[in-house]
Amino acid sequence: MSYNLLKGKKGIIFGALDEKSIAWKVAMRAKEEGAEFVLTNAPIAMRMGEINKLAEHCNAQIIPADATSVEDLENLFTKAQEILGSKIDFVLHSIGSSPNIRKGKAYGDLNYDWFQKTLDISALSFHKVMHVAEKQDAMNEWGSIVALSYIAAQRVFPDYTDMSHAKAILESIARNYGYRFGKLKNVRVNTISQSPTKTTAGTGVGGFDAFYDYADKMSPLGNASAEDCANYAITLFSDLTRMVTMQNLMHDGGFSYMGVSEDIVDMISK
Ligand SMILES: NC(=O)c1ccc[n+]([C@@H]2O[C@H](COP(=O)([O-])OP(=O)(O)OC[C@H]3O[C@@H](n4cnc5c(N)ncnc54)[C@H](O)[C@@H]3O)[C@@H](O)[C@H]2O)c1
Questions:
Q1: Residues 70-83 pLDDT 10s
Q2: To test ligand 1's pocket by mutation, which of 73, 92, 199, 203 has the most ligand atoms within 8 angstroms of CB?
Q3: Most buried residue, 3, 7, 52, 120, by most Cβ within 10 Å?
Q4: Strand partners, 39
Q5: Distance 93 CA to ligand 1 centre (A)
Q6: Is 108 a residue whose pLDDT tops 90?
Q7: Average of pLDDT values for 135-147?
């Protein structure tokens, strides 16, 4: 169902890899709500070609950009404004990758070059995106910028290894750039801390199925799906949330405030 919440708004959506991606669902909902946007992903991720289907469906153009490259981001923001014919109202940063997790390195055995890569891709890229948007004066007044985070920024999830540090930095960047962009252009910056979700990045984390089930049983509302997450992101891009900024917003069915649930007690007592 459409409420025309994003009618006339122009955006950039990072991170749609395949139809399971959170960014994919956000793009579909943004289209339904009347937005126009460009899609972007790392050139290497585009080789799969899945994003072309989404672009066709959304009548959106694709501009490749490695989010760790300031040069690629400059090209992206320049071209996006040309294509959309105006400045940008919303940006979704839905990017995460850890070579250490991909290669199964335990927390006590991290490869530090890969650790830096994790931080660059999953956290510093968020700063670079906003840096380029600021330098090009690419954001409209009262625009909205959202990135995706996970509760491992605050709590320990052993298999999340270096990504937990990336998420802590990501959330800190949202606060600090949120202050700066608020003062500069009334632009708000937030992170959504999402439930475990069955996507390529999510299922790549060791023990994913167990902590997916655990979170589902702990949360009174169960895990939030990628579609739920997209709905929430749309509200943050809409004019209904203009005074929300610098926040890490829990979108987790209640998980973050739970101590223990009856379902978990029942499971352990068996
Ligand atoms: N899936 C989960 O359980 C979960 C939970 C909380 C938060 N998140 C976060 O949601 C976001 C989206 O992940 P997802 O779950 O949709 O998985 P996904 O694998 O579909 O998306 C991750 C995206 O990051 C992109 N990416 C990687 N390196 C890049 C680079 N250098 N430049 C540009 N893009 C790059 C990938 O191509 C991919 O499109 C990530 O920040 C992730 O950490 C996921």
A1: 999 999 999 999 99
A2: 199
A3: 120
A4: 13, 62
A5: 9
A6: yes
A7: 98
Task: Read off the pLDDT of residues 8-32 as tens digits, 9 standing for 90 and up.
Answer: 999 999 999 999 999 999 999 999 9
99, 118 contact by CB (below 8 A): yes
pLDDT of residue 1: 83
Q: How far, in Å, are 5, 30, 216, 252 from residue 8 at the CA level?
A: 9, 11, 37, 30
Domain ranges of the chain: 10-269
> CATH code for 10-269?
3.40.50.720
User: Are 230 and 25 in contact, with CB atoms under 8 Å apart?
Assistant: yes
DSSP sequence for 165-218: HHHHHHHHHHHHHHHHHHHHHS-EEEEEEEPP--SHHHHTSTTHHHHHHHHHHH
Contact (Cβ atoms closer than 8 angstroms) between residue 152 and residue 202: no
Average pLDDT over residues 95-103: 97
- Measured in Å, residue 156 CA sits from the centre of ligand 1 at 20
Whether residue 261 is predicted with pLDDT greater than 90 in this model: the reply is: yes
- What is the full DSSP assignment across 98-110? -HHHHTT--GGG-
Contact present, 6 and 238 (Cβ < 8 Å)? yes
Q: What is the pTM assigned to this prediction?
A: 0.98
Name the catalytic one among 107, 160, 177, 257: 160
d(CA 88, CA 138): 6
What angle, rounded to 10 degrees, do the helices at 226-237 and 22-32 form? 50
Burial of 44 (0-12, 13-18, 19+ CB in 10 A): exposed
